[in-house]
Structure formats: C-alpha cells, structure tokens
Specification:
This protein is α+β, with helices and mostly antiparallel strands and 311 residues long. It has helices at 9-30, 143-173, 176-183, 186-231, 235-242, 245-266, 269-276, 279-300, 302-305, and strands at 41-48, 59-62, 65-75, 84-91, 103-108, 115-120. It has a six-stranded mixed β-sheet, with no helix packed on it. β3 (65-75) and β4 (84-91) form a beta hairpin.
Length: 311
C-alpha cells in the first residue's frame, strides 16, 4: 500500500513565489532592459520605411539615456513613408520631453551593432503629446545611406587619383608651362642669372647709400660751419644778422624817402610840380604836335627846306 505524500502549505507558497519570480524575470528579459518593471510606462507609436533589423524589446533612448523599449513591430503599408508601425513604451517621468515638436529616428549602436529608437526631445514649453500619439519621424543616420555616400567618396577619390596620374604624366613629359618648369633647366639658369644681377644691384645700392650718407654728413658739417660763422658775426650774412647798422641805415633812408614823397605829393619842388602841375604836360604835348606837323610838311615839301645843287 502506497503512502500518500503530503505537501505542506508553507512549502507550496515558497514554490509559487519562486515560480512567479522566475516568470517575472523572463518577462523582463524579453521586454527590454534598462528600466524597472515597476516603472509606470506611457505608450506611443511611430512609422518607419525600413527598420534595418530593429526587433521587439529594443531599447528606446532620449539624449543617450535608456528610457523604455519597443513593444511591437508590424507592417502596415499606409503610404511610402509609413510602411512599418512601431509601438514603444517610455517612462512616464520623461513624457514632459515628448512634446508636439519632438521626433523619432532609428539609431545604431556602433557601426554594425544593434538597432534602437532614439527620441529627439521637443521644446518643454510646448504641449505634450497625448499617450498613444504618433511621434513624427526625423531623418537619422541610415547605414545604407552611409555606405552609398562612402561609395561616392571612393568614386571621387578614384577620379582624383586618375587626374593626379594624368597630371604627373604631363609634368614628366614636359607638357605645358608647368611641365617645362619641371623638365627644362633654362628657367633655372635664367633665375640664377637674375639672382646674380639682383645681388650686384643690391651691392651697388649699398655703395650709393654710403655715398649719399657721406654727402649728407658733409652738408651737415658745412651748415654747422656756416652757422658758427653767423653766430660769431663773421662774414656778410653774420653782419646782416647781428649788426644793427644796416637796419638803422635802411630805417633812416626809408624815413627820408617818405619825406621826399610827401613833398612831391604836396607839389613842392620840380618833382612836385611835375606831379601836381599839368602845364608842363600841355606844353610837351603842344611841342610834340608841332614837331609832327613839321615832319609832315617836310615830307610833303622837302624843297621848301632843302635846296640841292650839283654845280
């Protein structure tokens, strides 16, 4: 006869607690990490044209901080820009950053790493998006686009390499002005001659500069000598500057000339009469008229004044 196995209620409670804990841990591991299962979450949604390997449970970041996870991904094909619907949950404590001008984009951890959703915070003063609203999609760093840009850059680099190869070939063959400069030594010889000529010119200029400097010094010495002579009252210029006799004579002469002019102005003396009395002017004028008449009469009747006889 088999013996019945009795399970105590206390052991049953422990087993149930362990089972619930394991289930919660499994659920948390599949629902995303970085947030507590006890945090209050708020759900939003968005649309992408290509998720590039994004999976459910992928993290959601804001400003580099994990704040939630992706809960659902499915095809909807609403239009060319809304082909895949993404549902996500974030901490309720950061919903003030998800405003009407916030955005959502797909990010990559590393160059070829796991994908995540990054929410670009909006302006805090603007209204918040209501739970369940669509977060607008903003352009992100797409790996395919980066590879395409890299391919274009490689093509440009290849074209640049071909151009450089062609250019160096022309230089090596001496084509064009630059090629002649690299292959023809005539320019080198001409430049050498020019440098030599410039050297000679500079030497001549230095010599001329020395001569000019010497001439200026001689002029300065001569001026110093002349100044010394003037200061010592030697020579005519020294006398003119230091001796007051000439000034006094000039002053006296000016006084006499002024007195003479005053007498002339008053009509005194012969000079005054010439200036003030016009009778002499009238007599001279009459004399000139008589002389003119006489000359005119001689020209008309020369026999009246001159008699010619051969014998």
């Amino acid at each position: 006869m088999k013996r019945s196995i009795r399970v105590k209620w206390g052991e049953l409670k422990v087993g149930l607690l362990i089972t619930v804990a394991i289930a919660v841990m499994l659920w948390a591991s599949f629902s995303g990490s970085g947030t507590s299962i006890f945090d209050t979450k708020t759900g939003y949604m968005g649309y992408l044209t290509n998720v590039n390997g994004l999976v459910s449970g992928a993290p959601v970041w804001i400003a580099g901080v994990e704040v939630g996870n992706v809960t659902h991904i499915k095809f909807v094909n609403l239009d060319s820009t809304r082909q895949i619907e993404i549902r996500l949950r974030v901490k309720k404590s950061i919903t003030n950053m998800i405003t009407t001008d916030a955005g959502m984009k797909l990010g990559t951890i590393g160059f070829l790493g796991d994908k995540y959703i990054e929410i670009v915070p909006g302006t805090l003063t603007k209204p918040r998006l209501t739970p369940g609203s669509v977060i607008p999609t903003v352009p992100g760093a797409d790996l395919a686009a980066m590879l395409a840009e890299g391919q274009k850059a490689m093509e440009h680099a290849h074209d640049l390499s071909d151009n450089l190869t062609d250019l160096t070939g022309k230089l090596r063959r001496g084509e064009g002005t630059a090629g002649q400069m690299f292959t023809n030594d005539t320019l080198f010889h001409e430049m050498t001659k020019m440098v030599s000529a410039m050297t000679v010119l500079i030497e001549e200029m230095q010599k001329s500069q020395k001569q000019i400097t010497s001439s200026i010094k001689d002029v300065a010495r001569n001026l110093d000598t002349i100044t010394t002579q003037i200061n010592s009252n030697r020579g005519t210029v020294g006398k003119l500057i230091s001796d007051p006799g000439l000034y006094n004579n000039l002053h006296s002469s000016a006084g006499r000339i002024d007195s003479i002019l005053a007498r002339v102005e008053r009509g005194e003396g012969s000079a005054g009469a010439l200036v003030k009395d016009d009778s002499l002017y009238i007599e001279i004028r009459n004399l000139v008229l008589r002389v003119e008449n006489l000359v005119s009469d001689i020209e008309k009747n020369p026999r009246k004044y001159f008699k010619f006889s051969v014998f």
